[in-house]
Specification:
α1 crosses α9, α3 packs across α5 and α8 packs across α10. It contains 12 helices and 12 strands. The strands form 3 sheets. It has a 7-stranded parallel beta sheet, with helices on both faces. Strands 7-9-11 form a 3-stranded mixed beta sheet. It has a two-stranded parallel sheet with strand order 8-12. With about 350 residues, the protein is α/β, with parallel strands linked by helices.
Length: about 350
């Protein structure tokens, strides 16, 4: 299978050693004939060893680059000579952004600016033929829209209302991408996705935290009253959506990617613990480790996405429901306990 036309030879993926990025790299290596360049600074949450083990391919090259470095970013674009760019590189953990916001400004805002400027210089030198097929997809989050009341949904027309340093820096990066499209005519696309989960997610995020703590017989922390609502998307479904947007998305447009799997944080803890009870029966019931802690500063109450646009225009919809996804995820972690350490 090849997702893209034959003239698409080189694909640059920023953040290709992260959770979502590495899943995309694996998919494109498996199902296209393209050369994949992974631009990643290899931070604490990167999967460098896994990439070296599993990406044993002449079609894969790691470019160890921090997007905050302007010259290194320009050189990486020159080396990769991309036909398509998927921009996933970002600092993404909200708690970390509250403690160390400057890192998020440097990575998410300055990094995106440096990448856009490097691509602008690159774009201006392309032949008309190559310009006609070049695309830049910026992968963002639903958190840029803020918090919702009951029954409301985020859409592509939702106003931006970021409420954490993380979401504020992602909102800024979205605006930069739109500006470079409107001002310099770089052919850009933007996606805003709900929470992702799945195998190989770094164990600072909610679902792997639940698994790690439950297996270690430690308290599973739940912020506040546990009733904050999130929408949960299995990572492979997100990859399907990103490929669809890159294939068929309208240049300059934004696509919201959701799953309709709306759950409170407490419900997610219960679902993961129920799955652990099935596949790790000797430690059941895992729910006994549930513990409530002081709420996170500026904790948004509810996120929910209306995916009508991507569903109707691009014929995408998720393949996994929340139970299927959690089952796959729990079984993977039980078979890969080293990951949690």
């Amino acid at each position: 299978m090849n997702y893209f036309p034959e003239n698409i030879k080189n694909i640059l993926i920023t953040g290709g050693s992260g959770f979502i990025g590495s899943t995309l790299v694996q998919r494109l290596l498996k199902e296209t004939n393209c050369k994949i360049y992974n631009l990643d600074k290899l931070s604490y949450a990167s999967y460098f060893r896994e990439n070296n083990n599993n990406f044993n391919s002449k079609r894969y090259e790691l470019l160890k680059v921090d997007l905050a470095n302007e010259e290194d970013t320009k050189n990486a674009v020159k080396i990769s000579n991309p036909d398509l760019v998927f921009h996933l590189a970002a600092e993404s953990h909200v708690d970390n952004s509250i403690c160390s916001p400057k890192v998020f400004l440097e990575s998410n805002i300055i990094g995106t600016y440096n990448l856009l400027e490097a691509l602008r210089s690159y774009w201006e030198l392309l032949t008309e033929k190559k310009k006609n097929s070049f695309k830049f997809l910026h992968v963002s989050t639903d958190e840029v829209f803020g918090s919702l009341e009951n029954n409301e949904l985020f859409t592509e027309e939702s106003l931006y209302n970021p409420r954490s340093p993380y979401s504020a820096t992602k909102a800024a990066s979205d605006h930069l991408v739109r500006a470079w499209n409107n001002t310099y005519h770089i052919p850009t696309l933007i996606t805003n996705s709900c929470n992702n989960f799945g195998p190989r997610q770094f164990p600072e995020k909610l679902i792997p935290v639940i698994i790690k703590r439950a297996l270690a017989k430690e308290d599973i922390p739940i912020y506040g009253d546990g009733q904050n609502i999130r929408e949960w998307l299995f990572v492979e479904d997100h990859i399907d959506a990103l490929i669809k947007v890159m294939q068929k998305g309208k240049i300059g447009d934004t696509y919201c990617i959701g799953s309709k799997n709306l759950k409170t944080n407490e419900e997610i803890v219960e679902l993961v613990c129920n799955s652990l009870d099935t596949y790790n029966i000797q430690n059941a019931p895992h729910i006994r480790f549930k513990s409530y802690i002081k709420d996170r500063a500026g904790h948004d109450r509810r996120y929910a996405i209306d995916s009508k646009k991507i569903t109707e225009e691009l014929q995408w919809k998720p393949k996994h429901d929340i139970i299927d996804g959690i089952t796959i995820t729990v079984k993977w972690y039980l078979n890969n306990l080293d990951w949690l350490n």
